[in-house]
Structure formats: structure tokens, C-alpha cells
Amino acid sequence: MRTFLILFVFINFDRGHCTETRAQVLSITPKTQEQVDILKNVSTQYQTALWQPVSSQYIKEETEVHLFVPTNSSKIVKDLLQKHSITHEVLLPNANELIEMQMRNGSTDPRSGSTFYERYHTLEDIYDWTNRTFQDNPSKITVILIGSSYEKRPLYALKLSINNRPNKKAIWIDCGIHAREWISPAFCLWFVHHSLSFYGQNQEITNILNNMDVYILPVMNPDGYLYTWTTNRMWRKNRSVKKTSPCIGVDLNRNFDANWCTEGASSEPCSEIYCGAFPESEPEAQAVANFLREHKDSVQLYLTIHSYSQMLLFPYSCTLDEAENHKELLEMAKEAAQKIRRHYRSQYRYGAGAKTIYLAPGGSDDWVYNLGIKYSFTFELQDRGHYGFLLPPSEISKACNEALIAVKTIALKVLEKTQAQIRSP
């Protein structure tokens, strides 16, 4: 971790020497098993951050790998690749500049205009935004403390409710389960702002909010998110400490009780996909699980927002078996992807998680599905790898509007189906 501390000191205080502190993102496609083995070694033994795939176990022949290489590792990594005739392409030649650009967030007052939502914000800013949003909309917004993180930071969910109709159904949206995926919390803020601004003007959001409440958790992993702002921009997991290992953190999206810690997760604490000591061992996962258990009869649609790769996924990710309502979920995801393509010309893949990407047990979407919430989706937002986790602020608007189309499309379909069930004898 000391490497990243040095890196950020240079960024903040010695901008005149940015050429000496150049971190890069490389795209590498291994051609042989020997190259696969070398790349696995590079991604685990040197101070790098594997962007794609999420773990070295998924590296295979003819599959593109995205690797973040910090300054101090650049020469040794490139020399090693050259020695073994492994070609690479530089996706991002100066990642430091992008990191610095992301951290410039100007005004922290959401009342200052829509540009507030076209920037990334610190955890403190997001907590402040939560308070201001509630103060400005007390008849529509309720703030619920659902639990706290490992380092005792509050987990605040906003309940967006327009009316008090009896037996209303609900939508749950969580963001920021993986710390480095900054576009995810940005979308949660965007969604709330859009809903409050366009209720009564936009027919789709008006229809959704007239008939359903929405719970929004802007940052599910506050400790990790804060750490990406202060120390290591590439951090993924939470920040829990284990007495038995020097490695920190659990992948919260491997910590739910859905084929927990089977193929596609790791019992090794140093792994990026470490599943934890047991299901819901992490307070963040447990808080969300407890809330959803308590509200499983009202929550009809579960959405968890991630990045990157532009995908609309649904259960199962923990097994190759098809979900009971696979065709129904596939139709919803397909329609949402088609609408995104029509409006923004962006291509989103869609399908069951395990078959579309790879096995990923212990995910929140599968656990929720098994709980009985049969409309459960994971959105992987922009982009497809060029900027990856360092999506520039200038791209926030497009990324969030794409996700908004998908949310509206799927929510309206779920609403239509739940109303049909109520009407049927």
C-alpha cells in the first residue's frame, strides 16, 4: 500500500513532475498457456491491479486482460512482458491525470445546479447530500439507518415515497458495493435527483413513483469508498481486518448466502474475490440482507449497480442452472438493452450472470432471488474497458442516462406484472 501513498503525494503536491509518476492501464491478450501463467504471476506477485477479469484465476488464452500498472512497477512489468514476447497495448497512458480529474469535484452543494451530478463526490459529500436532499424534500424522502460498516460508518438508505397508498410495492437499488466503481454511487445520486426533478413531468418516472416506493443505498461500502479517495484508487473490497491474515477486506459481492464460497470465489483473504469467514460475516452485507429480509414482501425489484463492461445481468451467477423465470428476466433485460442502443447507440450484453461472464457465487442478486424477490438484476455500467474504473466525469451523464433507461424499462415491466397479479382472482 505504501506505493499508492507515494503516488498520491506526487499527484497532489508535485504536479510538475507527472512524467515521473505515470501509471498506466495495459491491455494484454495471452496467446499460449505459458503466457497465461506469466500474466497470472505478474498480476499477483507485482504491485498491479487486475481490472479485467476480476481475479487471476479467470485469465486464459485469447481473452483480453486489463491491468493497472502503477509507476514503480511499470519497468519491471513491461520488461517481463517483452522477455516472454507478450504484446500489450496501452489503454490509458497516464492514469494519474484521470484520477486527478475525477477528484476535482468543485461545488459540493447540490443546490448549485445539475453539474453537481456530473462530478464524483467524496463520502463526506455524499453524506451531506443525503441530509440536504431530505431537508429539501421532507414529504418525499425518508432517511433510514440500516446499519454500519466495519469501521462504524453509517449505512444510510433513502426511501423515496410519493404517497401513502396501502400495500405499496417497492424497488431496492444499491450502489458502491465495490469501492473503485465510482460511477455506481454517482448513479444512485443521479437517480434520486432525476426522480425528484421530473416527477409529474416525465410519464415513466411519474408512473413508477405513483405506484412504488424506492429504497436507494448510495454507498454500500463506505470504508472502501473512502479508502479509494485517500489511499488506493483501485481498492475493491471492504476494509475489515482478520486476525489470521495480514490482508484486509472481503468482497462484499461474494459474502451473501448463495452457493457461498464455491467455484468463482476464494477462501484466501488476499484474493480480490475473498468470500469472508462465513455468509454475511461482513456488517455491510448483513445490514442489506437484514433489511431485505424484513421487506421481502413489499420489495418486488432488486437492482445492484456496478461497473464496468456494459451488461444487464440476472440470476443465476452462482450456478449454471437457469432461474425459474429465466425467460421473463431475459425479455426484460433484452428490451432494456435495445432501448439503450436506440437512444445512445451503446451496446449492452445481457443474460444470466454465470453464462454471460463467469461463475460468481455469494452475490447479492442471487441471494435476493432465492429470498423470493424474483426480479433481480445487476447492472454493469460504462464503459467496455477503455477508461474502465476511471470513467471521466464528462461521461457520467451518458452512463447514468443509459442506466436510467434500463431502470425505467424494467421497473415498468415489473409494475405491469405485479398489477396484473393483484387484478387476477
UniProtKB/TrEMBL annotation:
GO BP term, example: proteolysis
Molecular function (Gene Ontology), one example: metallocarboxypeptidase activity
Residues covered by the Peptidase M14 domain: 119-414
Assigned GO CC terms: extracellular space
Keywords noted in UniProt: Carboxypeptidase, Disulfide bond, Hydrolase, Metal-binding, Metalloprotease, Protease, Signal, Zinc
Highest taxon, organism lineage: Eukaryota
Active site: E380
Pfam family, one: Peptidase_M14
InterPro entries: CARBOXYPEPT_ZN_1, CARBOXYPEPT_ZN_2, CPB2, M14A-like_propep, M14A_act_pep, Peptidase_M14
Classification via PANTHER family: CARBOXYPEPTIDASE B2 (PTHR11705:SF17), PROTEASE FAMILY M14 CARBOXYPEPTIDASE A,B (PTHR11705)
Similarity comment: family membership: Belongs to the peptidase M14 family.
Protein name: Peptidase M14 domain-containing protein
Organism: Channa striata (Snakehead murrel)
